[in-house]
Write a structure and sequence with these properties.
Elements (H helix, E strand, L loop, with lengths): L2 H5 L4 H7 L41 H13 L4 E5 L2 H12 L5 E5 L4 H11 L5 E5 L4 H7 L5 E7 L11 H10 L3 E5 L4 H4 L9 E5 L13 E5 L2 H14 L5 H12 L1 H20 L4 E5 L9 H7 L6 E6 L2 H11 L4 E2 L9 E3 L20 E5 L5 H12 L1
Parallel strand pairs: 2-3, 2-4, 4-5, 5-6, 10-11
Antiparallel strand pairs: 1-7, 6-7, 8-9, 9-12, 11-12
Helix pairs in contact: 2-3, 3-10, 4-5, 4-9, 13-14
The chain binds pyridoxal-5'-phosphate (PLP).
Length: 387
């Protein structure tokens, strides 16, 4: 058995640190170098030393990242892209053709919704929204013979709804469709959709996988080799690949994913407890709360409940905006999943584009990406901002 085959049976943290790369034979380099090269010297025409010929097709730093994330998701192959949306677009081109239909979450990440609504639709791909927490609604949205993909996020953003991956996979497969799970919010540490029946996992590695708010990237992981071939062809044919430096940063992030996620979850739980007791907080939304409608499901399919917390402030939109603008440790900003805590107002920021539609979020809603700073400092900051 090779070292990499042994790793298939190893624990998550061991895979995170060792999968995808073996110390370089020539130098012993423990970490893959940033292979800043576009091309590779051939030993005679077609004589490729390491299988590499041009860095859009493959680059050793990217290969290391792709092997690592595939091992973390317990998939057969991984693919790294320039962004989460680049990964999504490549997946759609790989598996769909004009005239096909896709079911998407009715509260999809805004960029995902825009991709389907403005880009894929113009190419001829139809889409219908359905609530991921309602298996019957997803089944009803499927068009037998035309639906190619059922696309879900769980937890969703910013209401943190939970979809039953096992049940949704069964519903998709019954109709001859594939289940795609955007696993960005949970990360592979908390949830591994391929082991629950999903066919493809999508990541914005910009978020928890990279984890340090210093790189934009995306990934796909699949378990079927036929799907892998289609994705590999389109990754090269379209060319929206992750560059070597971005791949190196993301791989560096993945090595500490487990310890970071545990601290994100610890801190989120403390923030939730604090908010529940605060007189200026009307409602706390977190899948770890027994009052959350998806709590039991989340407890079944996730290791813990994640670092994202949403809450509603008494006093409406003005009060919520004031809280967002008053914190000092929590930085006002979009995105999520980095070591630093972020605060934002979905109604005016990440979800401004869905105002006036069915997807509109409450005006008094505040979303937190709870970081890994000292928990007491986070609580004191929120206490000050809530006044
Ligand atoms: C950020 C995000 C994306 C898009 O990823 P980019 O890296 O920004 O292109 C997709 N899905 C979810 C859930 C996200 O949070």
């Amino acid at each position: 058995m090779s070292e990499q085959q042994h790793l298939a049976k190893a624990g998550f943290e061991t895979r995170a640190i060792h999968a995808g790369y073996e110390p370089d034979a020539a130098t012993g380099s423990v970490i893959p170098p940033i292979y800043a090269t576009s091309t590779y010297k051939q030993d005679g025409v077609g004589g490729l030393r390491g299988g590499y010929e041009y860095s859009r097709s493959a680059n050793p730093t990217r290969t290391a990242l792709e092997g690592n994330i595939a091992a973390l998701e317990q998939g057969e192959r991984g693919f790294a892209f320039a962004s989460g949306l680049a990964a999504e677009d490549t997946l759609v081109r790989s598996l769909c053709k004009p005239g096909d239909h896709v079911v998407i979450p009715d509260d999809a990440y805004g960029g995902t919704y825009r991709l389907f609504d403005k880009v894929e639709q113009a190419w001829g791909l139809e889409h219908s929204p359905a609530a991921v927490s309602d298996v019957d609604a997803v089944r009803a949205a499927i068009r037998p013979g035309q639906t190619r993909l059922v696309w879900v996020e769980t937890p969703t953003n910013p209401m943190l709804n939970i979809g039953d991956i096992e049940a949704l996979a069964a519903v998709a497969h019954e109709a001859g469709a594939l289940l795609v799970v955007d696993n960005t919010f949970a990360s592979p540490y908390l949830q591994q959709p391929l082991t629950l029946g999903a066919d493809v996992v999508v990541h914005s590695t910009t978020k928890y996988c990279g984890g340090h708010s210093d790189v934009v990237g995306g990934a796909l992981v699949v378990r079927d080799l036929g799907i892998a071939d289609a994705v590999a062809f389109h990754q090269n044919a379209i060319g929206a690949v992750a560059g070597p430096f971005d791949s190196w940063l993301t791989l560096r992030g993945l090595k500490t994913l487990a310890v970071r996620m545990d601290r994100h979850c610890d801190n989120a739980e403390k923030v939730v407890d604090f908010l529940l007791d605060h007189p200026r907080v009307e409602q706390v939304i977190y899948p770890g709360l027994a009052s959350h409608p998806g709590h039991e499901l989340a407890a079944r399919q996730m290791k813990r409940f994640g670092g994202m917390v949403s809450f509603r402030v008494t006093g409406g939109e003005e009060a919520a905006l004031k809280v967002c603008e008053s914190t000092e440790v929590f930085t006002l900003g979009e995105s999520l999943g980095g070591v630093e805590s972020l605060i934002e107002h979905p109604g005016r920021m990440t979800h401004a584009s869905v105002a006036g539609t069915d997807l509109e979020v409450p005006a008094d809603l505040v979303r937190l990406s709870v970081g890994i700073e000292t928990a007491d400092d986070l609580l004191a900051d929120l206490d000050r901002a809530l006044g």
